[in-house]
Design brief:
With 678 residues, the protein is mainly β. It has one helix and 45 strands. The strands form ten sheets. Strands 1, 4, 5, 7, 10 and 12 form a six-stranded antiparallel beta sheet that branches. It has a six-stranded antiparallel beta sheet with strand order 2-3-6-11-8-9, with no helix packed on it. It has a six-stranded mixed beta sheet with strand order 33-35-44-38-39-41, with no helix packed on it. The chain starts with 16 loop residues before the first strand and ends in a 16-residue tail after the last strand.
């Protein structure tokens, strides 16, 4: 499947172009054979790692020039390796090289010969991707390159060699770029053969690419807002198909009679497109014209007739709106179609700016203005309220994390822009980060790669799919460096910052009010999934956790009772940390076992929802570690002066009533040296 509109090869005079990679030279892979974990052939770096399907250079796929090509194989043993892949073993592998655009030649053209089948029609599962990225983006085996850099995708193309391109890219003269070819497959079915590539030809030129050729009639929108009124696609013809248009969404919505509108907004912002139609199975596809091709912006496709479509648009750029059908019906009437730019307030220039890291800051969406952008992970909504932040990248790889507060389901998007006034181009977006700290995370997290050091980026924080409003904590740090420490919710403290790391305990008895502590902080302190007793018993990970530091001032017995304000399930884990060089790292690595751990599902053995360590009452307390079938109360801990313990209390439920913690006569040093937060 193709994501680029392919154009015929243009003719340029010799003085206006430079061949960067010759299709009969370094682009033909004739220097040597290869089938290993990593290596270099003809100036191309191959990154296979230990993936089961990998790039090989040999004669197994045939060639378009010479006798060799680069192709995917599942077996390096034969000579040549076969041009086949294991459809039952997922793989992500790459090969790439860097090119520099000469002075006065900012336009890049890439052409090649490809053969590829794979899997997937409306959704692709096994395919060849081509990326053009900054040289700071380094492909890693098993990890897909950020889709923001993709310029083409191919699957189910042909089992024979097919010429592709030229693929156009409008860059900056004097700038270096990384051209990446990636093979991706899942672990289900697929059609042989996988990808093969040969005769890669890359040219820099001073001549901009020609505009795309679009079949059929085009309705020119004079200005926005625009109202088309009633219309009918019947009799318009099936001019726009999956074979002559870049597919936006599902190719099934390119089979009916169609209409196409062209508009150029005079201001940047969020465009809202609304279709009122009594027919069914309509599809709206929005494209942006750029660099000689049409690029898919977004789409709305479903069995209903009415559609609402929203996207970020830039003043002065040209957009195309395509109305089509999934036959049947093959065509139909509609009652109205409108296009408008939504009003918004986006105070990005006055947003907080961060230049040194790690950094953590609190914020709230209560009373926040409209962001003026449409984050891709926002579920298709048209208007988003939230807060803007700015940061200057100090590393190509930065992490942005939003921890929940009373905003229990935050989301985050990161943008680039030529200035704080926009226009804004989304780099990444996340609502509900992948599991890593706990079983049902509600934090938002982005691991950004390929950033330009010294460039300013823009962060939008807003409510995730569960909606609502409230406060949150935003953290930004260099991915390879130390994350910030959310006070009370991260094990490791930041040197010199007393309001970081575990909380001190200032009295034997205190209460934590609703909603208590939400989320898991910035770092994943507990192993997840948990190993179970005698290691961490908290199988659900760090669900709404708080960490408390317990220094022991005299010999005695340590006990505590956790009493929820209402009947909810609190779990806990207790470590001794004074005799370990780096206790937080040891806990994360799973090399330090707790002295006590309870993951009991209430009620406890005393018939209540209370839980903890008992040195007498209740008398049913026993054992040192328990899972969900435990009793809630564990045996007394004998302690000595100078020892230090770390207590983590986690709320398993999604109800947040708070709790009371009672240490009784435990010999804890309650002298507080850091801020008190309750």
């Amino acid at each position: 499947m193709r994501y680029l509109f392919l154009l015929g090869l243009a003719t340029f005079s010799l003085w206006a172009q430079t061949i960067l990679v010759d299709g009969t030279g370094d682009g033909s892979f004739e220097a040597s054979t290869f089938c290993g974990n990593s290596g270099t052939v003809n100036g191309w770096t191959i990154v296979n790692g230990t993936q089961p399907n990998r790039w090989a250079v040999n004669t197994g796929a045939g060639a378009q020039h010479g006798s060799r090509a680069i192709y995917i194989t599942n077996n390096c043993a034969p000579n040549p390796p076969p041009h086949n892949y294991n459809t039952g073993s997922s793989s992500v592998v790459h090969f790439y090289r860097d090119v520099t655009l000469p002075a006065g030649q900012p336009y890049l053209q890439i052409s090649a010969y490809v053969k590829v089948q794979g899997e997937g029609t409306s959704t692709q599962y096994d395919y060849l991707d081509i990326f053009l990225a900054p040289t700071s983006v380094t492909p890693t085996a098993g990890t897909q390159v950020n889709s923001a850099y993709r310029i083409a995708r191919y699957n189910l193309l042909s089992s024979s060699w097919v010429a592709i391109g030229p693929l156009y890219y409008c860059g900056t003269a004097g700038q270096s770029y990384r051209i990446i070819f990636s093979w991706i497959n899942d672990n289900s079915v697929g059609t042989q053969p996988p990808a093969a590539v040969d005769r890669v030809h890359i040219v820099a030129t001073a001549t901009p690419p020609p505009p795309p050729s679009i079949p059929g009639a085009i309705i020119n929108v004079p200005a926005l807002p625009y109202t088309h009124g009633a219309g009918n696609t019947c009799g318009q013809g099936n001019d726009l198909t999956a074979s002559n248009m870049p597919v936006c969404g599902s190719s099934f919505y390119y089979g009916g009679e169609d209409m196409l509108w062209r508009f150029t907004p005079s201001v940047s912002g969020t465009v809202q497109i609304q279709l009122t139609s009594s027919t069914t199975w309509t599809g709206l596809m929005l494209y942006e014209e750029g660099c000689g091709r049409l690029n898919c912006v977004t789409y709305a496709q479903s069995s209903s007739g009415d559609k609402t479509l929203c996207a970020d648009v830039v003043a002065g750029r040209t957009y195309y709106l395509h109305l089509d059908y999934w036959p049947t019906p093959t065509c139909g009437p509609f009652q109205n179609l409108t296009i408008q730019i939504l009003p918004h307030s986006a105070p990005t220039c006055s947003a907080p700016l961060f230049t040194s890291f790690p950094v953590a800051t609190t914020g709230t969406t209560v009373g926040a203005p409209l962001l003026g952008v449409t984050p891709s992970c926002g579920g298709g909504a048209c208007s988003f309220i939230g807060r803007w932040y700015q940061f200057v990248a100090t590393s190509p790889n930065m992490t942005v994390h939003v921890a929940p507060g009373t905003l229990s389901d935050p989301a985050v998007a990161v943008y680039s822009a030529p200035s704080c006034n926009g226009p804004f181009t989304q780099i990444a977006c996340n609502d509900d980060a992948p599991s890593g700290c706990e079983s049902s995370p509600k934090y938002a997290r982005l691991a950004l790669t390929g950033l330009t050091v010294g460039q300013t980026y823009y962060v939008a924080v807003f409510a995730g799919s569960e909606g609502g409003s409230g406060d949150y904590v935003l953290g930004i740090w260099e991915t390879a460096g130390q994350p910030p420490s959310q006070y009370g919710q991260d094990c490791a403290a930041i040197p010199g910052n007393p309001a970081s790391g575990p909380l001190p305990v200032c009295s034997p008895n205190f209460s934590v009010g609703a909603p208590g502590f939400l989320g898991s902080g910035f770092a994943c302190d507990l192993p997840y999934p948990a190993g179970g007793c005698p290691a961490s018993c908290l199988s659900a990970g760090e669900r709404n956790i708080v960490w408390l530091r317990l220094p022991i001032q005299s010999d005695g017995d340590l006990s505590f009772a956790i009493q929820p304000s209402t009947n909810v399930d609190y779990d806990w884990i207790l470590y001794r940390i004074d005799n370990v060089a780096n206790p937080c790292q040891a806990i994360r690595n799973g090399t330090l076992n707790p002295v006590r751990c309870s993951y009991d599902a209430p009620t406890s053995c005393d018939g209540t929802y209370n839980t903890g360590v008992a040195c007498g009452s209740p008398g049913c307390a026993s054992g040192t570690c328990e899972g969900a079938g435990g009793q809630g109360w564990l045996s007394c801990v004998s302690v000595s002066a100078g020892e230090v313990y770390l207590l983590g209390i986690a709320n398993y439920t999604t109800t947040f009533p708070g709790f009371t913690l009672d240490f009784g006569s435990s010999p804890i040093d309650y002298t507080v040296t850091g801020p008190r937060v309750w």
